[in-house]
Amino acid sequence: MDKCLITLVFSVLMIGGCLARVVTVSSGPLIRVEGQPVSIRCDVSEYMGPREQDFEWEMSRDAKAQRIKIISTFDSGYSHASLSKRVASGDISVVRLKDNEVELKIAEVKSVDAGFFYCQTPSTDSVISGNYEAQVQLIVIPNTLKVSPQTPPSVIPEGSDITLSCNVTRELTQSTYLSVTWSLKKGGTSEEILTFGPQGGVVTGQKYTRRYTDGGIRLVPGKNGVFELVISRVTTSDEGIYECNGTEWTHEKGGKWIKIVESKREMGTVAVTPTGQSLSVTSSSASSPSSTSMLLSPGDTLTLLCSVAVDNLPSLALEVTWLADGRDIITMERSGVVISNTSSSGTPAKRGEASLERTGAETYRLAVRGVSGEDEGAYACRIRAFVEKGGRSAGGGGRWHMAAEKMSSPVTVKVSQIKPSFSLTLEPILSPQMTAEPTELACHVTNITHLPTGGRLGVTWKHTTLPGIGDEPQDSNPIGTLDGQGNLLPGPTYSDRLKSGVMSLSRVQPNTFKLQFLRSQEIDMGEYACTVSAWTISSQGDMVKTAEYESSPLTVRWDTKRPSLNVVAKRTREASVGGATFEMNCTVSTENLGEAGYSVLIQSQDNLGSTTRTIMTLSPDNVVQHGGATDPNRRDSLVLAKSGPTEFRFRLAGVQLSDRGFYWCDITAWTKQQPGQAWTKATSSESNKVRIDFQENGPSFAIDIQSDSSTVYPWQTAKMKCSLSVSGSSPKTDDLAYEVRWFFTRLRGGATTTELASVDRFGVVKKEDRNSSSDISIERDDTHTYMLNIHGTQDSDSGEYHCIATPWYLSASTGAWTQAGELTSSRIFLTVRFAVWESLKLPLLYGVSASIGVGLFSLVLGLVCAQCCCRNTTHTPRSRNKLMDLEMD
């Protein structure tokens, strides 16, 4: 207990010894300007006592003079009489910032306030340690800062430079520094442009940083306190009231800059005249400046002048563009590069050769050589004036701003020429009487006059559908064009037909054009017209269209009778007995159907009204395919071929009893609109039905299903026997075969029947996929007996089983294999029981054996440990002196 008390006292003394009160004030000396506010902070740390500390402020004129009490945080009567009025008025005050920090404030410092200021903290510590007072020197200098700005021009043109000159001076009595700031005031907000100083640094406003970097704003320091800010290429955004702010700074210990006095003066209001107000553009003829229209002859040279007038032209970059009827012809960019524009299709415009050059400071000349009729129109000059936001020192790499854009009044230009004239006649050469027949139209050009030497003719064919023809409403579509050079330009609707050759546009004579359809379609009915154009060669060697005339429309139509198809089936070979050959011919007759292809379906049914089966098919391209009802083993016995243009032959060799029924042809007529296209269905029809009917007395069959046991246990094998019997004219064993299929119906979870396995008449066994771990197999005991074995039966194998058999026998009369009717057995039920004792006896036996083994092992292990590990080898007999033994205990 004594040891713990000593340790606690020692720890308290150690903690007390580590604490030492520290009072600090602002680093000095502090240089301030007379009449400006002053604040001096004081804080105390590492103290004992209450958290909130009190402070007392005193001052003296010098370090050795008598101190004067200024103010205290706890004594309202602490102030000296000479300062009590200033304290009462609030000129001198103390503000508590924290429990251990205060700030002495002087609203307007006076020259008499210069001296040493002392901050004291009354002691609240139990042990006197550290400092309880700190001092700082305050130097008060007179306010000699003067800001004298020079008034800038009140109005300047856009793109000009403006110089903002400001004189900032002060009398240097202490180590102080100056800075100057220019700002722009718009409305009630003012934004700084640039600040220079206080030690040679430059700081730009947020919106002016990039402009200063580009050289658009430059600082020009002068002599005797004169500072100039040059703003290059001003825009309307530079309007407003410019201000100049001069600031005097002191640099205190710790690298901190303190603003001690500042003065802001308005320099004046500056308005920027937009370029658009002074920009004017005039276009005129070089030969007749006052004329607003010109008349030229083909091949002449068109010369136009564009005159520009604008204030402050040297500060602007101009882009000049000549337009004809609102379309750009040629452009001179602001860099002086001339670009000839193209037509909307991307090919050079069919106009004369144009050039553009600058002939004076404010004049641009357009020249178009070798004019033609394509050069007629209203010509106007467009001027775009740009101002570079970057300064001149940016080397042309600044950002450009389009200040104004203006268009001149147009000058009308006409080219006199005599257009060729001619007459057109459109007549039919071949008129179709029905669909798929050819059509041929001829467009004759007569009475041609004023077609110059080397002139050529071109043609454009147009088709207008009749109401109710085709999928689309009545519409006019261009078929195609042969231009003056003979080039074929197909219309979008007829492009594929023209490229494939089923229709053509041609010039059969210099003045005759022909339109041909090899196979007319219903959508080709309608009105046709040809438009013939005259083409001449311009001075540049280009083909120029000079005239165009359209013929009267010509109506082409025919009676659109629907095609019909009639099919007659005729038996050519009779199958009177099994194994014979059946042959049938189908003949097609058509109406209102031209050249066509045919597809044939051979179909059959057992009886009238029963299910229809497709035996074979023949496509229009003569491709034969077998239907789903055809036995793959008998496909060699089936033949379907085209025996004539409209005749088809079907043959069935070795008929069987299962082939008896009705047979007929289902024929469809197909047409092609043009070579290479897909077949289009025209019409279809079925023939009369031809019957195969013969009688043959064959054997009779019966089927039965048996099972050794209807109940089995899991993992046992269940056996089921499917027995077949034959009666009547029983064939030999080698002439008899069966197809047997086994089926299972699960009664739990829905009565669904699935096929388990099958064996065909050739002995090939096929097993289906099953959701069970058991396995199945099929055995053939003899010719008429088939055994189904289920190995490793499971509960999921419980249900009904039955078999279906199809007998095949070799006919004695025909020598061919004949299929008998399908036989279905009755159903037998199989139950798989769950044996409780059989499933539990092995787990119980294993559990008892394991328990006995663990018990014996534990007993042996305990005996070994008792003998080897727990024996006491140093036995000492107990003393007979019990009292001594107790005392020892």
Automatic annotation (TrEMBL):
Cite the entry's keywords alphabetically: Disulfide bond, Immunoglobulin domain, Membrane, Receptor, Repeat, Signal, Transmembrane, Transmembrane helix
Signal peptide annotation: 1-20
Keyword flag Nucleotide-binding: no
Identify the SUPFAM superfamilies for this entry.
Immunoglobulin
Segments crossing the lipid bilayer:
844-870
One GO cellular component this record assigns the protein to is: membrane
Q: Where is the Ig-like domain?
A: 20-129, 142-244, 289-383, 420-550, 699-824
Q: What is this protein called?
A: Prostaglandin F2 receptor negative regulator isoform X2
Species: Scomber scombrus
